[in-house]
């Protein structure tokens, strides 16, 4: 574990690491759960609760039905923009968000819709540029941290990846943000935090990243990539190792606390270098 952290810290110090942030980071500051979103959509559509949850439809399918019934996602987006957030004070008090800013990643990708990362940068007086669509890619400055909203941003409804069709369309990995990620990731180390390996979208992304290098014939030259998992198991580790992803972890009672400890150790190693 220490050898992996030292290797990662060296790459962070050289500003050679892309951070990829998942829902676990936002949930650490109290972001509403996917279950709450699903229940809200079901209530608004007048659906019985037995159509959701285990054995029923997931939030992506319910969102697809929502769009079919109401003609657009406008009302849902407005509700999420108002409710799918936490207070500025909670972000300011979050050690995880403070550490993300302090580690000074040149590029941060996130599948989260909320603006917690942007707020954290503003709180700590750090410049950033938000990238949510092709226009933003063209205008993005290279001398400040880029926060790439991989599944969209509330300020641009067309960018939101929320309903089932949106996810299916993204599986081709040929959108402007997908092209950007492949370009960014090929020459850099990637660190994934806040993800569950039950998330098929992130598993497919990890596999595609490995497959790109595997087909190139230069797989041995690929920069190291890492995923933080608070509670890994041998099966997950073996599959990820096959894809060239090293698992890093911390044993703590709570996933948020485990991530905080990991980032703190990483920051300490970066500073010691």
From TrEMBL:
Family matches, as SUPFAM superfamilies? DHS-like NAD/FAD-binding domain
Origin: domain of life? Bacteria
Pfam families in the record: SIR2_2 (PF13289)
Q: Report the protein name in the record.
A: Sir2 family NAD-dependent protein deacetylase
| Source organism | Phyllobacterium salinisoli
């Amino acid at each position: 574990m220490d050898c992996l952290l030292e290797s990662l810290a060296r790459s962070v110090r050289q500003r050679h690491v892309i951070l990829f942030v998942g829902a676990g980071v936002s949930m650490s500051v109290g972001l509403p759960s996917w279950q709450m979103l699903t229940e809200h959509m079901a209530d608004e559509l007048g659906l019985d609760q037995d159509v959701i949850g285990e054995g029923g439809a997931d939030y992506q399918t319910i969102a697809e039905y929502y769009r079919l019934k109401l003609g657009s996602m406008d009302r849902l987006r407005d509700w999420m923009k108002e409710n799918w957030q936490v207070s500025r004070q909670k972000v300011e008090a979050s050690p995880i968000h403070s550490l993300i800013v302090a580690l000074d990643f040149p590029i941060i990708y996130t599948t989260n819709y909320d603006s917690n990362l942007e707020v954290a940068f503003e709180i700590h007086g750090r410049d950033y540029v938000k990238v949510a669509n092709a226009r933003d890619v063209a205008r993005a400055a290279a001398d400040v941290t880029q926060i790439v909203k991989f599944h969209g941003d509330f300020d641009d409804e067309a960018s939101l990846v929320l309903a089932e069709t949106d996810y299916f369309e993204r599986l081709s990995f040929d959108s402007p943000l997908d092209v950007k990620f492949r370009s960014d990731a090929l020459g850099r180390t990637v660190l994934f935090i806040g993800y569950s390996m039950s998330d098929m979208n992130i598993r497919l992304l990890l596999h595609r990243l490995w497959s790109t290098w595997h087909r190139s014939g230069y797989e041995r030259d690929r920069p190291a990539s890492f995923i933080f998992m608070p509670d890994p198991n041998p099966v997950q580790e073996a599959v990820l190792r096959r894809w060239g992803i090293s698992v890093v972890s911390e044993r703590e009672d709570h996933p948020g606390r485990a991530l905080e400890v990991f980032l703190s150790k990483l920051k300490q190693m970066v500073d010691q270098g």
